[in-house]
Write a structure and sequence with these properties.
The protein is of the alpha/beta class. It is 41% helix and 14% strand. It has helices at residues 10-16, 38-57, and strands at residues 5-7, 20-23, 64-65.
């Protein structure tokens, strides 16, 4: 089953063998940024989810960071 790991620390994801890796924002807020206003943060979150969906639909042979 294909999965995407949205990761705040990409090297750890690589070490544990995740195949599709999307870098996240920061450790305390992987899918957001509390310093942004609500509209900006929604754009940020949507972008990360869209990148993860592209990663999920992409055929890969080896570990890939998107």
């Amino acid at each position: 089953m294909p999965v995407v790991h949205i990761a705040t620390v990409v090297p750890i994801s690589q070490t544990v063998g995740a195949n599709r890796i999307v870098p996240a924002v920061a450790i305390p807020h992987p899918l957001g940024n509390p310093k942004m206003d609500a509209t900006e943060e929604k754009v940020l979150r949507r972008g990360l989810v869209e990148k993860a969906l592209v990663a999920l639909a992409t055929e890969i042979e080896d570990q890939t960071v998107f």
